[in-house]
């Protein structure tokens, strides 16, 4: 979380995982990269599925059917791509997908609690859809900073929700994430100290 949050694009933690696993276990970099890619893919799929599910409560019956077809097609298409390009992961595809869905649901719950703390007691579906959409866009930003707030600001022009409260809740979510991500610096300092000790032993 520390690397993902404080390195632009949200790929820092992924790059660190590849580096540390290759260094400590000599695992193949190509296979590690494909594993990380599939991890990201399952997360993206989970977000898209949850956006479609949330949208169903706002759409007409015909569009609900269309959303359901899109959701099933998206899951099956992603599974097909995984099976063809990364066959080694096809046996755990649905397991990782369900874990990704659970993680995103937990983030949604946290965001709803933030909204409640700011006095919002209704219309959560629009907030959730916008929040999930911002999670996708945050992949190309500096840990999502500014993206969520901007998206909520723009969405307020088209949907009926409180702009200042939604932006505040989004900013609070970013601050909370940053706070807990900063705890990772403890592990970073610990690893740096271990590295210095190893170098001393080698020089001796």
TrEMBL record:
Subcellular location, principal = membrane
Query: What is its subcellular localisation?
Result: Cell membrane
For whether the record's keyword set contains Acyltransferase, the answer is: no
What top-level branch of life does the organism fall under?
Bacteria
Transmembrane parts of this sequence: 41-59, 64-82, 88-114, 126-147, 167-189
Membrane topology of the entry:
Multi-pass membrane protein
Could you tell me the keywords of this UniProt record?
Cell membrane, Membrane, Transmembrane, Transmembrane helix
Which PANTHER family would you find in this protein's record? BLL5419 PROTEIN
Designated name of the protein: Uncharacterized protein
Native organism:
Chryseobacterium ginsengisoli
């Amino acid at each position: 979380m520390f690397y993902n949050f404080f390195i632009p694009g949200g790929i820092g933690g992924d790059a660190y995982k590849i580096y540390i696993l290759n260094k400590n276990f000599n695992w193949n970099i190509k296979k590690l990269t494909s594993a990380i890619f599939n991890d990201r893919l399952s997360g993206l799929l989970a977000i898209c599925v949850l956006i479609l599910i949330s949208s169903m409560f706002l759409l007409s019956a015909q569009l609900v059917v269309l959303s359901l077809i899109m959701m099933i097609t998206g899951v099956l298409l992603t599974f097909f791509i995984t099976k063809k390009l990364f066959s080694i992961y096809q046996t755990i595809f649905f397991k990782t997908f369900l874990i990704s869905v659970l993680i995103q649901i937990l983030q949604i719950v946290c965001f709803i609690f933030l909204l409640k703390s700011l006095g919002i007691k209704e219309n959560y579906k629009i907030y959730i859809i916008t929040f999930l959409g911002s999670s996708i866009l945050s992949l190309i930003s500096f840990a999502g900073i500014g993206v969520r707030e901007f998206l909520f600001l723009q969405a307020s022009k088209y949907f009926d929700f409180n702009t200042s409260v939604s932006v505040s809740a989004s900013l609070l979510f970013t601050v909370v994430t940053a706070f807990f991500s900063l705890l990772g610096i403890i592990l970073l300092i610990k690893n740096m100290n271990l590295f210095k000790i190893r170098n001393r032993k080698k020089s001796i």
